[in-house]
Structure formats: C-alpha cells, structure tokens
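Supplementary notes for students who missed Thursday's class. We covered one full example, reproduced here. Read the sequence, then the structure, then the short commentary at the end.
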Amino acid sequence: MNRIILLFLFIMLGVIPCFAGSDLPERIHSNYENGVVVEVLSEKNNEELSKLFNLDQIGQILRVKILSGDLKNQEITVENQLTSNPAFDINVKKGDRVLLSVERFFKEYEVYVAAKDRSAVLMFLVSLFFLLLLVIGGRAGLKIILSVLSSFFLLVILFLLILNGLRPVFITFIMLMTSAFVLRFILNGINVRTISSALSTSASLSAGCLLSIIFINISDLDGFHCEEAVILHSLKPFLDNREILMSSVMIAVFGVLLHICSCISNRIFELKSSDVKNNFVSLFKAGMAQGRETIMTVSTSFLYAYVGLMIFMFLMLCEIPFLKFINLNSVVIVVITTCIASINLVVGIPISALVSSWVVDSFSKNKLKYPSFLK
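Structure (token representation):
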C-alpha cells in the first residue's frame, strides 16, 4: 500500500511540470523577487496631487535589500506611492518583507514594490498544520497529509488542463471522480468500504453536476462576476467562463459530499459486517438514517462556512436596496452555489445509501471471497 501511495505521488510530481511548461509565456525581462525594507529614507506628501485628488498622496523613498534573483544581496532605492486608498496602497515600514517587481531593460533594472511578502506566514501555518497532524494523528495524520497533498496536485493538474483548452465541466467531473477514489484509498486502503464510498460520492457528484448546469443556465450567469474572471478572459479568451463557474460549484460541493458519503458507506459496511443477515433493504434504511443524522450538522456548517467567507458582501446589504443586493452577480452566484450544494447533499443521501447498500450487499449475496487487497 505504501509503495502504491509513493508511486502515485512520484507520478504526479513528474506530470505537473510537463503541463506547467506547455503554455506558459517566457518572461525574461520581468520577474518577482523577495526583499526586505532596510530603511524608510523619506515620506512626503505631494501637495499638487493632494489638491487634485482631494486626498493625501504620500511618496515613500525606501532602501530595500533584494534577497533573491540576479540582484541578490544588493541594496537599492525604491519609490512607493500611497494614495490614501487602503485597497491599493502598500504601506510598509522598516523591517517589512516585500515582494518586488524587477523589470530588466538590457543591463538596467527597474524595481517596484508589488506587495507585502506573506509567504513566510503561509509556510509557517501549513507546516504547523502538518506538524500537528503528525503529532496528534500519528499514522492517521500521515495519511491525511498524503491525501491533502494528493488533492492539491490533482487540483493543479485540473486547472492546467482547463487552461490548455479542455472542457471545464467534463474534465472537472473526471478529476473529482479520480480524487474520490484516490483519497479513499490513501486514507483507508483498497477495500469494499472505500470502493462503495468512492462510487457513492461519484454518483452523488453526478447529480451536483447536473444541478449546476441547469441552474446556472437558467440564471443566465456568464461567469464574469469578479475581477479575476475578467482578467482571465483577457488572457485566455477561448475559455468558457460559464463552464468554469459550473466547475467551481462542483468543486465546492465535492468536499462536503466526500464526508457525508463516507459516513453512510461506513455505517452500511459496519452493519453488514456485524450481521451478514442484513439484506439490501435494511442496509438502505440504515444508510438513510445515518445520512439524516449527518446532514443535520453538515448543512448548518456549510451555511456558516459560506457566510464567513463572504461576510463583507453580506454587510453590503445594510447599504444598498435589498432588490439590488439580491441581483448582484456575486450574490446570485453565492446563493446558487449554496443552494445547489445543499440540494446535492439532500439528494446525495438516498443515492449514497442506494449505491453503498448495493455494493456491500453484492459481495455477501454472491458469496464472493474478499481478495487480499479488498480486506
């Protein structure tokens, strides 16, 4: 089993660079490097610009040490303009780590502050998460880490395939079904329980795929609901933003389906293992009961997760008319995504109970001996 997992990870590590290098433009004259602010040399308000925009226009002169790239360990002077707009200003002080945009023109360089460098914080949080999994979870924690990394690699492959022109809905469905089997096998090995869980997840996901296609088309959403979608269209005009939106709904639904389908499959498998006399009908009823119990907490958690991520958008309700608010593209997409996911969870209960009961009962009814890899 361990060899299979390692082989799978090595294959993905080898496949990603192949896709990554297929359609990426070469940028030999522009790059991003890490840096640190050594000193703020000056900070003055530009009176002319302040009068023109009726806001403070502060120009910072920074001495920055570049920590990577061709100019590594060099200290240079960089200008940083603050416009009193917190959405765009990069207000830095001495000691701050920054991301620098380095543009080379022949042998001359122009350097700008592109953003604050938060990569160290992100790496620390990810490392802390993995460390806690290993310390508290032990061997199970290691399996969870492998499943998280596998999910990440599969999603990266999915995104690269979409960028290379494959139909987003089709390839998303295929990759998510693959993920369902891979994640189950990594966490619990290859056995009847994991196969029934993966099959029930795939069947439930089919319903979610159909729902997203129907309701996004009925709502006449074009996928241009955020700045990123507009930028992506300008870079890749051949991509279908509407299909990408459908894919995003499927991905959002998939994570919760994994949990609820796994709970139902585990319950059915344990019931059959404890008493082989349990038939298809009794297994199905037990699966339905487990699904009802699980969805009581999952549906509420799902709602809070979405509201928490979109809290700024919902706070806008206090500032604009309700009718206008509920017709904003971003609001419509959040509501549709949440409703499709919730409906998919409810519909997924009988689908998962049906598929899992059939798979588990089939092995016992036909008196098939469990092969060594299905024990």
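Commentary. The first helix runs from residue 2 to 20. The chain is about 65% helix and 15% strand. If anything here is unclear, bring it to office hours.
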